Amino acid sequence: MNPSRLPLRRSLCAALFLTTAPAVFAAPPAAPSNLQLTWKDADLALSWADNSSDEEGFYLTYRVGSSGAFSDFTRVNPNVTSYSDVLTSWPACTVFEWQVEAYNASGSSFSNIFTVTAPPRISSAVYISGLVNTPISHQIVASCPGATIASVAASGLPAWLSLNPTTGLITGTPTTTSRSPINITVTFSNGIIANQKFRINVFRPVPALAAPVSTSPLPDRTLTFGTTPPPISLTAFFSDPDVSQASRVVFNTGTIDFAYYPDAAPATVTNFLGYISRGDYTNSIIHRSIPNFVLQGGGYKATAGAPSIPRQPAVVNEPEITNARGTVAMAKLGSDPNSATSEFFISLANNAANLNNQNEGFTVFARVAGNGMAVADAIAALPIRSYASTNGVLTDCPVTNPPPPAFDPASLVKVLSAGPVATLSFAASSANPEICSASIAPDGNLLLSPSGPGTALITITATDLDNQSISRSFTTTVDQSFAPWLASQNFSGNDNLPDSDPDLDNRSNLLEFAFLSDPRSPNQSSLPTPGTTSISGSTHLTLAFPIRRFAGNLRYQVEAASSTSGPWSPVWISTDGLSHPRVLSSSLAADRINVTISDSSPITPGNRRFLRLRATEP
């Protein structure tokens, strides 16, 4: 039985040459000597003395037991005197005989035979794989014919793992990610000991999706009709808790958004964004499509010969998040965990069992957001063609349907553009657009457009890249100050002044505005109305009048005096509010508040009283 590979087949062929002179054959090489071998756990090492200068090479051969033919294990070059290997399987606790054969065209010669007993073998997987906060178990399996396991020990186990020394079962619940090496020692009943190095590979699960949140309330706002308010940034009021950075990759087959994990893979995210910002991925192709495994791209251009994109220095491996379906990870060389440069792949299935453990784990730095996996699955469903004659790596290219007969860059799946995308998009609506409309500018800022006095409820909806939304509202009050009101009347000349009286009704334009009357018609319906009321048995003067709502800084002031010549004293000012003692009544209408104000002093035979109303705008 071959310890780790199928026997090599060799064929030493004699060649017949026709010549006028007799053929001269060299002698076989001198036999190697002093063959030594060590076999500890999976590590096999051989050394020997090379006593010849004309061998064509060496065969390392073995047999199980002490009789029968030797089988080839491997072949090495001439003048080599040592060989080592790490075996993956072998018959445990079995006697082997090894021999080195030197050969050339004239024949072979053989070294001394070295006899060794193969070590016991721990055949369970050499890694323990799991996810944070998910229970794991791993059974140690070892064999040595004719003996039983007496005990199992481990060194380097983290605190959250425990080993049953009798059964060899390792159990626990990881509390953190881990790439910890541990050593397992199995002692058999015959005293033989087996050792094996393990690695604990614990990854974070893919973070759960989280809907947008409101980081602070949207404040109510007061606007002035006739003005244009500045844009309002909404990023101060909303955030996406699970996505802080994202890119939009537009393929000729659809769009895929990448949501990054900068906390888990900061160097890799920075590296990838560098390729995007330099435009390196534009016109690059998906050059590898393996159904139910991965889509791989970021390496080659959709031009003749499929040349490589410019590669930057390799980035350090950052295996942290599990390689689940929909994750985006960096490709790398099979023998170097820190060799990732530009190529990336999208996992089409849960590849954790393979990619979390292979080559020290693959770095997940992003995930496909929203409906992007539908685009990825559609690419994976395309016909696959090999263009290895064009570029040796193009063995599994997805192409448009029907597939072209030969390499055609136009038929490949390629990136049209790649760049940053906002993690949140916004929509705005107004319950009263005739008072204030709301819209979102291309840069994502809120635009409010006051179009009439009053209030409007504005609702903002924030939607993340996964189509999850949150809505919040605020009230906008639109005031109409006197100046834009007067401008809207389109008066000309002296009629366009605050104190002018175009309709000759003894009310200036400012008073027409204050009392909501028509400055073009001498209508007296909105004039203040005097009256009286009884307060504690005494008669008080009253004045009823409308207060224009949403009138900005317009101020109303009721004053009283015992003579028309004064002096006049304030009885009530609009800034006193409607709960003031002098306010007899108030009623709210759409565009006004109707109030009745009473004098503070009663009318008596010796005390005449007068009231007047002033409206001013600072």
How are the secondary structure elements laid out?
Blueprint: E1 33-40, E2 43-49, E3 57-64, E4 71-76, E5 82-86, E6 95-104, E7 107-110, E8 114-117, E9 121-122, E10 127-131, E11 136-139, E12 142-143, E13 149-155, E14 161-163, E15 169-172, E16 178-188, E17 193-203, E18 213-214, E19 221-224, E20 238-239, E21 246-251, E22 254-260, H1 266-277, E23 284-290, E24 294-301, E25 327-330, E26 344-347, H2 352-355, E27 364-369, H3 372-380, E28 384-385, E29 397-398, E30 415-420, E31 424-430, E32 436-440, E33 446-450, E34 454-464, E35 469-479, H4 482-488, H5 509-514, E36 529-535, E37 538-548, E38 555-561, E39 569-573, E40 583-588, E41 592-598, E42 610-616
Parallel strand pairs: 10-17, 19-35
Antiparallel strand pairs: 1-2, 2-5, 3-4, 3-6, 6-7, 6-8, 9-12, 11-15, 13-16, 14-15, 16-17, 18-20, 21-22, 21-30, 22-27, 23-24, 24-26, 25-26, 25-27, 28-29, 31-34, 32-33, 34-35, 36-37, 37-41, 38-39, 38-42, 40-41
CATH class designation of the largest domain: Mainly Beta
Q: Provide the low-confidence segments as ranges.
A: 1-25
| Full CATH superfamily name of the largest domain | Cyclophilin-like
Number of helices: 5
Classify the helix fraction into a percent range.
Answer: under 10%
The overall pLDDT average reads: 92
Structural commentary:
The protein has 618 residues and is mainly β. It has five domains: 85 residues, Immunoglobulins (Immunoglobulin-like); 83 residues, Immunoglobulins (Immunoglobulin-like, Sandwich), CATH 2.60.40.10; 84 residues, Sandwich (Immunoglobulin-like), CATH 2.60.40.10; 175 residues, Cyclophilin; 88 residues, Immunoglobulin-like. 6% of the residues lie in helices and 40% in strands. The protein has five helices and 42 strands. The strands form twelve sheets. The protein has an eight-stranded antiparallel β-sheet with strand order 23-24-26-25-27-22-21-30. Strands 3, 4, 6, 7 and 8 form a five-stranded antiparallel β-sheet that branches. It has a four-stranded mixed β-sheet with strand order 10-17-16-13, with no helix packed on it. The termini are far apart.
